[in-house]
UniProtKB/TrEMBL annotation:
Belongs to the RecF family. Keywords: ATP-binding, Cytoplasm, DNA damage, DNA repair, DNA replication, DNA-binding, Nucleotide-binding, SOS response. It is found in: Cytoplasm. This is DNA replication and repair protein RecF. GO terms for cellular component: cytoplasm. Gene3D superfamilies: P-loop containing nucleotide triphosphate hydrolases (3.40.50.300), RecF/RecN/SMC, N-terminal domain (1.20.1050.90). ATP binds at residues 30-37. Residues 3-363 form the RecF/RecN/SMC N-terminal domain. Coiled coil: none annotated. It comes from Vagococcus entomophilus. Signal peptide: none annotated. PANTHER family: DNA REPLICATION AND REPAIR PROTEIN RECF.
Amino acid sequence: MKLTDIHLENYRNYEQLALDFSPNLTIFLGENAQGKTNLLESIYVLAMTRSHRTNNEKEFIRWGEDIARIEGNVQKRNSSVKLEMAISAKGKKTKINHLEQRRLSDYIGFLNVILFAPEDLSLVKGSPQVRRRFIDMELGQVNPNYLYQLSQYQTLLKQRNQYLRRINETKKKDEVFLEVLAEQLAESGSFVLFYRYQFLKKLMHWANEIHETISQQKEDLAICYEPSIKVDESMEREELKAVFLEALKKNQARDLMKQTTSVGPHRDDLLFLVNQQNVQTFGSQGQQRTAALSIKLAEIELMNAEIGEYPILLLDDVLSELDDERQIHLMAAIEGKVQTFLTTTSLAHIEDKMKSKPAIFHVSEGKIERKSE
């Protein structure tokens, strides 16, 4: 899978921009706050319809304009796809080969991307919300039904929490309505749980293999799902649903008191073990970063196994955060097989680790100039 070009109109600090890309490594080089990350973000938004940096989509639109547009052509093994996205105050519109898509879940997955930014190094030691978002974003790209069920779950969760607050305000409770909400929440939530378990089982296979290589066979990595209810990966979906429904009923009184839903996939977490020890709590920074790097590289291999093509890799100034040994492992793992876009302020820590010559674009105050060969 390759992104052959991108066209931006009124996106962030770019009024008009058209770039053609190398099928291998493209580097956006420049000082901070010049527009490098905006370029990388535009590729991510074209793929995922949302940003890794902000939830405020108005920020995408150039100051003083009403609409921002991103377009790109994707070359796949057996086909080519044109993707278009328009962002305005009214929302987002997406097109695939000029045909407008009614649902975002029908659009996501035509361009697969893996993003690795400095904040991803805190995947291991960061908050549970960071780890849940990691699962949701990556799993959603390879499983459209997961994305649909997650959206359903989030909508129902919001409805239930709103109703819990309304009961507290009005002192009136409709038990039948609460039961219906719980049933629907357990239905979609059990799908979310089931798919997460399947995804993590596959991810751990690749991550442990890579982690052993980086640590020179001194460490093994395990990823454990930490649910807020008593379920495990051996359960079928219907069993997950039954246990979740029972937990919602059991916790209803507490939920009414706190006016929020206390159990479910939105409360779950991941646990990372290196040599059977909790690396989040007891691991060194080096171990935590090796685990995060192993997981990111594992995503690439997992996605290739799932869809039959390697995704596009976006590296947002992450090499400067890794030591030489981890930089070498990263470059060796991707070179020649994954189209990669990389932002950096300097080539000093990159040039001696690359076998092939990259395409380099200088970025300064929103202006792009390709470095001559």
